[in-house]
Amino acid sequence: MKYSLNSDEIVDIFIKIVNQYRMIDEFPRYFGKADIFLHMAEIQTILAIGKNENINVTNLAKFRGITKGAISQMINKLVKKGLVIKNISSQTDNEVMIQLTKRGKEVFEEQKRYNEFLNQKVAEILSGIPEEAVNDFMNISSSLEGFFNEIVKINKDSMKDKGKNQD
């Protein structure tokens, strides 16, 4: 007898996975060589800078998918922690370029190794699953991502509408 999940069970599994990921995001990670604890948002910013050395604030915000204000706050935190430096662009005086310090590069390299480890573990899990099932999973994931993007847009739009109605 073939067992099939209903949509409630699928959503429950998805929520559990999201919650587990949030727990990873919630707790800081220790970087031994740099001797520092960092939260996931800080780590993601360091990865983005490390992959795009000498990136400006605007492009870093776009790359991370967050506002310029939010990325500026994050950069200032990382400057205080000695992980990044800000330099005025050699091409224009009103553009700030972001670089990793030696300590920031240590975090970047350690996180790259950690990500490689995680990717290897995921690859091991997927190696036991038929390619067709993995392709189906990717298609389903892509469809769900599109659906959730629509929900986020609807929620944002309803917040804008609510704000307009209260004026």
From TrEMBL:
InterPro entries: HTH_MarR-typ, Metal_resp_HTH_trans_reg, WH-like_DNA-bd_sf, WH_DNA-bd_sf. Gene3D superfamilies: Winged helix-like DNA-binding domain superfamily/Winged helix DNA-binding domain. This is MarR family transcriptional regulator. PROSITE patterns: HTH_MARR_2 (PS50995). The keyword Cell membrane does not apply. One of its GO terms (molecular function) is DNA binding. Residues 7-146 form the HTH marR-type domain. Pfam families: MarR_2 (PF12802). Keywords: DNA-binding, Transcription, Transcription regulation. It comes from the Bacteria. It comes from Mesoaciditoga lauensis.
